[in-house]
């Protein structure tokens, strides 16, 4: 039998369906950008080889979890890292063959289609529906009990809970940065883009989510998540813009392929 922090497939503590799925997807999504970078750097890399490399990376990471008191090690996370690293390479190769504008249009259309499901998933992960809501008239009273100091709740919880909260919020609000990049890439020129847009967008969504927790019993809004959401959205936006610049040839792309015979 697997312990709470270890499992050949799933760790024993992975008992909340949607949260468990989100965590597994997060394990994979964390390495997907690395796959995109590999595809941009090497023109002849194979997704199959990358999948094996992802498994090796996953095994190494899960092995290290044994030496961390709060570590959680599970076999399915290894597989997810291999799959998503290979997917990142495949996606990067497709992006190299397409124009950034076309990619942005696809992402923006998907963002519009998936907006409501995305908001619903974020609300569920934030615990909006974990218990019946308190009466709306108690909102002001409940809000007055919220600690506004940054990282306040991180000081009074365990290391694994604090880290899980940080990673969960980073991944939850990452799509905002990608959607904002796609919107700006479709609608405006490079010189008209503003970094403040993904920052404000991520923070505003996080504010709504955190204020919703005010009326959920046993939940407490953490305004630190506004900062985490803003940073996450900005980082993804910047990464997408950097990849766009490479594909447009506006910045020297990574070229790590060995020189071919007969060329200098």
Defining traits:
single chain; 264 residues; mainly alpha; 2 domains; two-stranded parallel sheet; 10 helices; 65% helix; 2% strand; globular
Protein described:
The protein is an all-alpha fold. It is built from 10 helices and 2 strands. The chain has helices at residues 17-29, 32-41, 47-65, 75-97, 100-125, 139-144, 152-155, 159-187, 196-212, 224-248, and strands at residues 6-7, 73-74. A two-stranded parallel sheet has the order 1-2. Helix 1 crosses helix 4 (75-97), helix 3 packs antiparallel against helix 4 (75-97) and helix 5 (100-125) packs antiparallel against helix 8 (159-187). The termini are far apart. The model is unreliable at 250-260 (pLDDT under 50).
Order of helices and strands: EHHHEHHHHHHH
CA-atom Rg in angstroms: 21 Å
Side-by-side strand order of the widest sheet: 1-2
Spatial separation of the terminal alpha carbons? 59 Å
Main structural class: mainly alpha
Instruction: Please report the total strand number as a whole number.
Output: 2
Overall number of domains: 2
Strand content: under 5%
Overall helicity: 55-70%
Mean pLDDT across all residues, rounded? 78
DSSP summary: helix tally: 10
Spans where pLDDT lies below 50 across 5 or more residues? 250-260
Global morphology:
globular
Largest sheet: 2 strands, parallel
């Amino acid at each position: 039998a697997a312990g709470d922090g270890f499992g050949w497939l799933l760790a024993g503590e992975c008992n909340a369906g949607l949260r468990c799925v989100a965590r597994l997807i997060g394990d994979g999504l964390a390495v997907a950008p690395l796959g995109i970078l590999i595809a941009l750097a090497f023109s002849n890399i194979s997704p199959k080889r990358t999948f094996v490399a992802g498994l090796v990376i996953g095994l190494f990471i899960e092995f290290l979890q044994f030496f961390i008191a709060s570590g959680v090690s599970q076999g399915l996370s290894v597989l997810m890292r291999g799959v998503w690293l290979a997917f990142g390479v495949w996606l990067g190769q497709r992006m190299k063959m397409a124009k950034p504008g076309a990619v942005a249009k696809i992402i923006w259309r998907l963002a519009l289609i998936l907006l409501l499901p995305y908001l619903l998933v974020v609300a569920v992960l934030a615990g909006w529906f974990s218990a019946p809501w308190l009466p709306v008239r108690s909102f002001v009273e409940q809000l007055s009990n919220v600690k506004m100091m940054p990282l306040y709740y991180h000081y009074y919880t365990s290391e694994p809970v604090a880290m899980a909260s940080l990673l969960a919020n980073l991944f939850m609000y990452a799509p905002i940065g990608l959607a904002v990049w796609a919107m700006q890439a479709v609608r405006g020129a490079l010189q008209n883009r503003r970094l403040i847009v993904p920052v404000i967008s991520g923070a505003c969504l996080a504010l709504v989510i955190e204020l919703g927790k005010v009326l959920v019993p046993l939940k407490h809004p953490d305004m630190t998540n506004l900062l985490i959401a803003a940073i996450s959205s900005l980082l993804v936006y910047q990464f997408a813009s950097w990849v766009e610049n490479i594909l447009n040839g506006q910045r020297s792309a990574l070229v790590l392929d060995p020189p071919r015979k007969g060329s200098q």
